[in-house]
Structure formats: C-alpha cells, structure tokens
Write a structure and sequence with these properties.
The protein is an alpha+beta fold and about 575 residues long. It has three domains: about 170 residues, Beta-Lactamase; about 140 residues; about 160 residues, Methyl-accepting chemotaxis protein (Helix Hairpins). About 80% of the residues lie in helices and about 10% in strands. Strands 1, 2, 3, 4, 5, 6 and 7 form a seven-stranded antiparallel β-sheet that branches.
Amino acid sequence: MSKLGVKILRLVCVVVGAIVAISLISSTIVLKRAESQLRDKAKQSITESVSIIDKNKIEKIIKDRSNNSKEYGEVLNSMIVFKAKKDIKNFYVYIKKDNKTAQFLIDASPDPAGYLENYEMQGGMISAFDGSIAVDSEPSSDKWGTYMSAYAPIKNSSGQVIAAIGADEDVSTFENIKKLFFYLSILQVIIAVIISLISVWLFSKKLKYNIGIIESKLVDMSEGNLQGNVELKTKDEIEQIMHSLNDFRLKVSNILINIKEHVSNAHGSSDDLYSISKEMSLSAENVSLIIHKVSENSEKQAYHIVSMEEVFDEFGKRIENATKMINEFSVMGNNISEKSKKSSTDVNLLIKSITDLNVQFKSVAEKIQGLGANIDKISDITNLINDISDQTNLLALNASIEASRAGEAGKGFSVVADEIRILAEQSKISSENINELLKNVSNQSTAVVADTKNVDCQFSNQIGIVNNIASSFRVIIDDIEKLLPGINLVNKSMIEADNNKSIIINNLETSSSSAKEISTSSKDIAAIAEELSSSAEEVTNSAEKLLYVVNNVMENVNKFKTEE
C-alpha cells in the first residue's frame, strides 16, 4: 500500500473509530436511561407496597414465629395481589437476623424461599433497616435470576423498623439485550473495519495508479521532456489536476519555443555584432597606421621647410655679396641661376608632396566619417540587443512564475529560468557598455574629423604659400636671366630679390610653424586612433562574450523537448 493509502487508512480508521465510539456512547446512554427507568419503577413499586402491608400483622407474625397463622396468609395474599398488579417478579418481607444476615419472613415470589431462610444482606437491604428506601444501582444476580431490587422499611406504630420489604424487577431480558447489543456492536466494528480496509485498499490501488501516471509525467517534465499529454478519466480532482498539468506543460512548452526563437535571433545579431566589431578593429588599426605615416611626413615636411629657410638666408647673403661684388656678377649670376633652377625643382616637388599629403588627409577624413556611420549602425544593433535582453528577461520571469506554480516539480525549470534571466541581464549590461564605448568612439571620431578639417585648411594655406614661393623662384630665375645682359638690370633684380627675400623668409617661417602644428595634430590623431583601436578591441571582446552567453542559453534551452 502506498503512503497516501496508509494516510487514507488512518483517516478512515479514525472516522470509523469515532463513529463506533459515538454509537457505543449513545447506546450506553440509552441503556443507562433504561436502567434508570427500571430503578424508578422499582422504587415506585416498593413505595406503594409499604401501604398494602399491615404493620400490626407483620409484628404479630414476627412474634409468633409461624407461617401457619391467619395473619401470615392474609399478608401473603395481599402481597400476591399487589405483585400481580405491578408485574413484580419477586416480592418478599424479611427480617434482620444480624448485621450481615437477613431471614425471609414472607415470600410471594413464584419460587419462594423457605420460611426464615437465611440470606446475606447487600447494600440496599441494609439501608432499608436504617429506615430509608433504597434501590440497587446495578442489577444483581443470584440463584433466582437477575433483578433490579428495591427495599423499604416496615415500621410499627412507634416508628421502629421491625422488618423490611423487597421487590425485584426481572431484568434478565434487559441484560440479555445489553449483551446482545454489545456483541452486535463488536461485530459491527469488525465488519466496518473490514469493509473500510477493503474500500481503502481498492481506492488506494486506483489512486496509486492514477497518481503514478501523473508522477511519471512530472518526472519526464523534470528531465526536460515536455511532449505529450496525460490522459485520465476519473471525473474527480485527479482529472482536474491532469488538465492543469497539461495546461502547464503546454504553456511552458510555448514559452520555451518563444525563448528558442528569441535566442536564435539574438545569436544571429551577436554574430553580426562580432563581425562588425572585427571589421571596426581592423579599420581602426589601418587608420592608426595611416595617421602614423601622416605624422612622419609632417615631421619631414617641417624639416624641409627649415632647411629651405636656411637656404634662403644663405641666398640673401649671396645677393648682398653680389651687390658688393658687382664685378663678380657674371660668375655669381650663373651660380644663382643654377641654384634657382634647382630650388625651383625642389619647390615643385614640395608642392607635389604637399598635394599628395592633402589628398591622403582627405581620404583619412572620409574613412573616419565612414567609421562614424559604422559606429551608428553598431549602436542600432546594441539597442536591438537591449530589446532582446528585456524580452528574454521578461520571458525568464514568466517562466519562473509558472515554475513556482508547479511546486516541487518545477524547481529544476525555475533554476533554468533564473539562469536565463541572469544571462539576459548580463547581455543587457554588456550591450550598455558597448553603447557607452561606441559613444566615446563616435565623439572621438567627430573630434578627429574636425582636426582633419583644420589640417586640410592648413594644407591649403601651405600649398598657397609654396605656390607663392614657386612663383617667386620663377621671378628670380627670370630676373637672373635678365641680369646677365646688363648690370643695371641685375642690380635692380637683386634689389627686388633682396626685397622678396624677406617675404620668402616670413612665408617660410609661417610654413615651418604650420608644419609643426600639423605634426602635433598628427600625433594627437595617432593617439586618438590608438584609443579607437583599443575601443574596437573591447567591442570585439564584448561581442565575443555576448556570443558565448547566447550560445550557453541556446544550449540550456535545447535540453527541453518541446512540440514544435
């Protein structure tokens, strides 16, 4: 028998015991009430019997000590008539021999005792000699049968107790009924216990079978198998439990299917985020390399401009020496012509180098702007991840609530639901961290674009300056060519060249300062590019962790077998 059957058996035994106890108590009360009525009847009969006894005749019979007297016969006849009228079994008069023994004086019973036959006095008989009417509290038995006896004193004219009268109500039938009722009660108890045991055994067997089916299904559900319904037709609470279990299984199965779909979508988004972060990391590295090259070229440009400034200082000195040494003008003119041509070639190369550098800076600015667009796309994806995390968290909360309703059977699922909710919260936190990093990267990218625009302006100014230098060089060359035909023209040209020398030097100083600023900005851009690369690596790591978390969630959810 199952534990539930044992509990039901105990309950039935308690109920049967209570019913039997109530029945026995009720029967006892009824029997006690019947006994009380018998005692009342006996007391009433003995009270009335005192009035029919002639005390004087009794006193004379006691004195005569004879049962052959007229008085004896008259008293006996009156007693027989009263006995018949009251339906009394035994009716007798007795006297006291000593404190323990009584003697029958007159006996009107069907089976009378002998005249002055000794009889051991009992409680009620003794009380009668004390002057009070007494009734036995319990039936008594002797050789004449089982009776409920009542006793009353017989007093003489002076009030002295000279004898006592006794009346016995026959209660043998009542006692037999009591015994029969007792045996029937025992039999009823035995039958009730047997019927209860059989009923409990049959009910327990059927209940154990039905509960066994439900328990088997719950075990399958605790192991992750949510397929198939429980089918029972008991038309009671067991069937209601079955329907509730089937509804719970269907709801949990639907929840898990939804979780699978959302986790699958999150998995795809995580893959995309991981790929984009990888590309962003590579782009950041390329930007860093380009910026380093720009910085190196800027330093070289500054070096060349400083060198050109020194050359033009030397050129000015030579123009002054040429003014003083007009006689050596021809030789010096030729040297200046050659050097001017060479300087013109260098300036053209410088213009080309600055133009190429400007193009590269524009390309870097365009890539940085493209990087900002990619960062905005990544931000959109992380917002999508936040939404998915919120939905996953809500689903996990609903799954936990449904698992708590299942009680013990849903504890395992409740743990899984809590893990899913924790993973969803972690995903949301990681996504928020990614958003924060992306905001920093976007701000830094905006700053880089602004700096590159400033650099582009500087490059444009520098190109203008260098073009001015090239124009000046062409003027100088023309002047030198014109200088050769005539000293006056040479002197005039040298004066103009001396004037132009100061402008050129100022422009070179401006170009040198701009080149230094470009070099400093390039270093700043390089530092920002390194930070961008570091941020891209952090985004990649976060995306990789997010992908790992999504894979774990997917693996845990796939442990459950659901009806697709």
